[in-house]
Every structure is written in C-alpha cells, then in structure tokens.
Amino acid sequence: MKYLNAQIILPDALVKELQAYVQGGYIYVPVVSGQQKRWGEVSGCRRGLEQRNRQIKEEYRRGVTMESLSEKYCLSLYAVRKIIYQK
Q: What is the pTM of this model?
C-alpha cells in the first residue's frame, strides 16, 4: 500500500479537520463496499499464478509427473497436487 500526503490530495479545510483527530499518524481509508479487489488483482500477481497453474495442469495432462512439476516450479508435492485437483 502506498502512503499519500494528505496536504497534497485533500482540501486544506479537510486536512485541518483531520489534524484535530490525528497528527503525524496513519489513517486507513477503506474501499467502498462492493469495489474491493481480490488479492493480487492490482499488481497482476494473481494473473501470473493463474497462468502458472494452468500450465502445471496442462503439463500433467501431457504426462509429466507430479514430482517433476514440483521440482520444475519449486513447489511442494502437496502444492502441485492441490493445483492439479482444484476445479
């Protein structure tokens, strides 16, 4: 999460009002309900893992062993099994 300077993004009157409650601290402003993003959606990490998992499943269907996939992708055998058997 990137921190933003309130004096840059908020009107002066609002900054003064906030300073009555918090000075020099951090305030978390939650996302509006229904607009939250899932983990990794903003950074693209989720998309990368989904692509990797599809590739693991495809290689397994082509006959590559779970043990080989575990070594190739630096995952535990348990993690590879979970990926292969997930819906």
A: 0.57
